[in-house]
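sanity check this fold:
=====
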Amino acid sequence: MIGNIELLSRLVLAALLGSVIGFERERLNWAAGLRTHMLVCVGSSLIMLVSAFGFADALGEKNVVLDPSRVAAQVVSGIGFLGAGAILMRGEIVRGLTTAASLWSVAGVGLAVGGGMYIAAIGATGIMLIILAGVKPLERRFIAVKQERNIHLLAERGSVSLDSVHNALGAGSVRVKQFIVQQSEDDPEIDSVQIGLSRATDTEFAIIRTRLAAMSGVRESRNGN
C-alpha cells in the first residue's frame, strides 16, 4: 500500500495532465472542455488506485486473489457514454469525434497515473497535445482540400426554388444541405437566397457558382457568410 502523500500526488498529477488536454478543447468552445477532461482524468486515476490498493485488506482472507485490472478495465468501456454525448450530427457532418477520442485517451492517462506509470502518462499527454493542436493545421493544409461552401443569391421573387437549384447543379454534383429564401430588406420584389452546399474543392465551387449565377431571374451571386 502506498502512502497518502503518494495517493494525493497521483490525483493532482492526473488533474494537471487532464487540464492540458482539456484546455486545448476549451479554446475551441467544445462542450467537453477543461473541467470535463480534468474530472475524467482524476476519476480514472482514482478508480485505478482503488482497483490496485482499495482491496488490500481483503487479501488476508483465505482463497482471495486480487486482480487490479478488473475495476480499471470498466473505465475503458464506461467512458463511452461521455464520448457519445460529445458527438453531434449536423446535416451530413459528424462533429465531436476528436473530442470523444480525447476523453477516452485522457481516461487512459488517468489510469496510467493511478498505476504509477508517470513517464507513460506524461509522454501520452504530450503526444495527444501534438495530435490535437499540432496536426490540425497540417490536416487542413494537405488533407482537407474540400470544405463546406455557402452561396448568397439575389433573385427575382419566386424565380429560385430548391428544384431549380438541383436542376442547375445537375446529377452527381454536390448536395444542397441548406436552402433559405427570404424577402430582401431593400426590395420586396427580390428574394435573398442562402444556399449551403456539401464539401467541394475550389474548382468545383467555381463551376457551381457560375451555374447558379446563370439561372433565370438571378441578379447577383456572391459567397455566403
